[in-house]
Design goal:
Layout: H1 3-26, E1 29-42, E2 45-57, E3 62-68, H2 72-80, H3 85-96, E4 104-109, E5 114-117, E6 127-128, H4 137-156
Parallel strand pairs: 3-4, 5-6
Antiparallel strand pairs: 1-2, 2-3, 4-5
Helix pairs in contact: 3-4
Length: 175
């Protein structure tokens, strides 16, 4: 009884797969790894995760692409506002695995067939997103670890900040 939905689902997947393949071809990708398990370390200890798609060019440049079914506007906003911790984590994991540099980061939105990227040189036809806090991945990661240490110190003292709408920032609210 849901054949129309199934047909639409298959059509969306086929169109998106074609678009994704075009982005990979335009980037001159020679190798793709899917669901690549990675392990590393951060200020709090062990870190691990599974990268949806790792694309590698012939000259060794890499891109991490997190594949999402939908949520283009949400992902655009998270990239613009510099709140892309999941992607940054994958970048850190690649560095820990011995990658010579941080990979390009992006999202591929299946439902819209859209590639959102923070690196126009890697995916030339993707929608380029430049974060408001213009920092490189190493700076982003350092900021994350600084915040993590600060929150951990608060937690160790028994302090837990609960932020809700209309909360006013105080000195204790800033790392």
């Amino acid at each position: 009884g849901r054949q129309a939905e199934c047909s639409r689902f298959v059509t969306v997947l086929q169109q998106s797969l074609k678009t994704l393949a075009e982005h990979l071809q335009q980037a001159a990708v020679v190798s793709v790894s899917m669901e690549l398990w990675q392990e590393g370390l951060y200020a709090g200890g062990k870190l691990n995760g599974s990268i949806d798609l790792l694309a590698t060019t012939g000259d060794g440049r890499e891109a991490v692409v997190d594949i999402k079914w939908s949520g283009k506007n949400y992902r655009l906003k998270s990239l613009r506002e510099g709140s892309y911790l999941q992607l940054a984590t994958y970048g850190k994991l690649r560095r820990d695995a011995g990658a010579p540099s941080y990979p390009a980061l992006g999202y591929f939105i299946v439902y819209d067939g859209q590639m959102l990227s923070m690196d126009h040189e890697f995916f030339p036809n993707a929608e380029l997103i430049v974060p408001d806090p213009q920092e490189n991945q190493a700076q982003y990661w350092a900021r994350f670890e600084h915040t993590w240490r600060w929150r951990k110190e608060q937690f160790d003292k028994g302090l837990i900040e609960v932020t809700v709408a209309n909360t006013e920032t105080t000195e204790a609210s800033l790392p």
